[in-house]
Amino acid sequence: MPSNSQTGMNGGPIKSKADKLNEELQKKKYIALFHGDNLLGDPVVPKGFLARFRNAFQDVRHIFQPNNTKAMGRVVDKLLKGQGLDKIGGAQLIGSMPNDSNARAALTAKEVKEKYEKMLHPPLTYLGDAFQYRTADGKFNSALHPHLGQAGAPYAKTVPSKTHPLGALPDPEDIFDRLMAREKYRPSQSGLSSMLVYHATIIIHDIFRTNDNDKNISDSSSYLDLSPLYGYTDKMQRRVRDDKYKLGLLKPDTFAEDRLLRQPPGVCIMLVMYNRYHNYAATQLYRINENGRFSVPAKFSGPKLIAAAEALGSKNAKFEKTLTAYRDSLKLYDENGQKPTKTNDYEGAAKALEDLIDADELRKFNKAYDAAWDKLDNDLFNTARLTDQKNVTRGLGNQVTVEFNLLYRFHCAISEADELYTEDFMKAKFGKPDWDPKTMTLEQYVQFMSYAAKEKAKQAENGDESATDPSKQVFGLPEQANKPDLCFTRNKITGLFDDQKMINQLQKSMQEPICES
Fold it and tell me: What is the pLDDT of residue 17?
């Protein structure tokens, strides 16, 4: 590099900055180190006994410096107490070693290797909304196999076929009667009650929902995700979720699985309990709001129009007067204290306030407001839904097997009381005195189920909410059965089932032994 030196007063050259830089570069052993990144250098590892000794001596000399006193104290204290190496103090001591330290290079490489090997390769999950929670239908439990365990997938097969199927398959009724039907009730001496069968029934309906048209397909997911409560599709979830308060709640005493309405009341009562626990968990998460995780930005925390007005409105006398009038109109509540009365005063005050805000800005604000509350709603819902899922293998997956479907059955174990209930329920629903549940044929049963499905569709067409809205459904025997203790209806105001009646039913079920096999 050409010199730009000048002559000084004594006639000697004055070194320019470029000259000095060149001299320093020539003296530097490792050019990469000169450019400020101590990790880019690739110094030669000292070899030979004396070279290694000098290298180790430099390590000791750099460690035993006054500024390392506290770090050395922490390291020694923990080692003497048998608590292992103090990571922070140890890192400081290693960092103080020279750049060409053999020990520093070895310790750093060992630590990096351990950290790398602890990470999963390939990774089991990724960033993004799709990977944040397992979906309603079971997708994205595994990032590598996102459809593993998804609703609508074929059953897995564990046991390979070793023989060809017979030309004529045996009669299903005969197989059921021989393997699953019981001749008489024999109370079990095991101490197990109907509560066990209720749990098993929920599990059965959670992971088994064989498709009507293709018996190889399971319409529910392969995970114990309480789909009888939440549903196994986004559409089913939306029908059971509360869409009013945006706080991750379920509609009161509501569950998604209509097949369980035909089961003994204890099964439905347990799902009501799960519903209430979900709402309790979501409410507690919102109240605690750890680290501000479950909250919306402050500007979206109030009623939508008031929040928009405060964020976008002009702070003048006319605006403040209009905003006050709108606030006053919100104080008019209906008889039940649930929502503002849509009076002319309310509508007029809202319209006057909206007219003072730019329409485009208001539309953008409302969109952002809804997005913030939707995110809070989803975060609370999914966190409460997945509460106590510590033992679920995250990032992997599962596919339920056809063998499990065939074997996991509890028909012959139900209690005597639940057997009588099932007969009463079928008699009340069938409405045919000559159809005895004990002797009716499979053809008769399928005929009735087909009729029941058509009847439900007809009810939906006629606007009967109980046929389409899970929050309107009831369970137990119909009123005409004249057994009020087994007829569970909703409070017309709260939509809740009667607590005492449900408690009484569960207490009875706890005293009813299952049937021994």
Answer: 74
Q: Are residues 82 and 179 in the same domain?
A: no
- Rounded CA-CA distance 292/297 in Å is 10
Beta strands 153-154 and 217-218: pairing type?
antiparallel
pTM of the model: 0.71
CB 222 within 8 A of CB 138: yes
- C-alpha separations of 118 from 100, 143, 396 in Å: 27, 19, 17
As for how many domains the chain has, the answer is 2
Within a domain: residue 516?
Answer: no
Q: Domain range for residue 45?
A: 15-118
3-state secondary structure of 490: strand
Q: Which position has the token pair 């099964």?
A: 267
Q: Are residues 112 and 184 both part of a single domain?
A: no
SS3 call for 265:
helix
What is the crossing angle of helices 304-312 and 359-385, to 10°?
A: 130
What's the rounded mean pLDDT across residues 90-97?
84
At residue 46, the pLDDT reads 67
Tell me: do 278 and 425 sit in the same domain: yes
Amino acid 362 reads: L
H or E stretch covering 7: strand 6-7
